[in-house]
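Anyone up for a design puzzle?
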């Protein structure tokens, strides 16, 4: 998994590349300050990358890369998978 983090208004935007077997997918994920307070382990770029990596590990245990939305806000994961909150809390 490749993750590139960049600062954005109100948080960060992450470009995520996932490779699983022969399947490759790309995703753009917005991470807010609120997301970091709720699920993060810090507030720097390394902590954002860690949260996004853990979130994708969570998603990939439940669905193939092609089923993950190409663009989404991190907080929407909880709508699709209610156990996300408990799994990701530090």
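Challenge accepted. My sequence:
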């Amino acid at each position: 998994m490749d993750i590139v983090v960049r600062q954005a208004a109100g948080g960060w935007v992450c470009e995520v590349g996932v490779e699983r077997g022969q399947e490759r997918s790309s995703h753009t994920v917005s991470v807010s300050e609120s997301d970091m307070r709720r699920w993060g382990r810090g507030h720097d770029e390394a902590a954002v990358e860690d949260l996004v990596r853990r979130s994708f590990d969570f998603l990939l245990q439940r669905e193939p890369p092609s089923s993950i939305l190409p663009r989404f806000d991190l907080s929407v994961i909880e709508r699709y998978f209610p156990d996300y909150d408990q799994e990701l809390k530090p």
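A detail worth pointing out: The first helix runs from residue 33 to 39.
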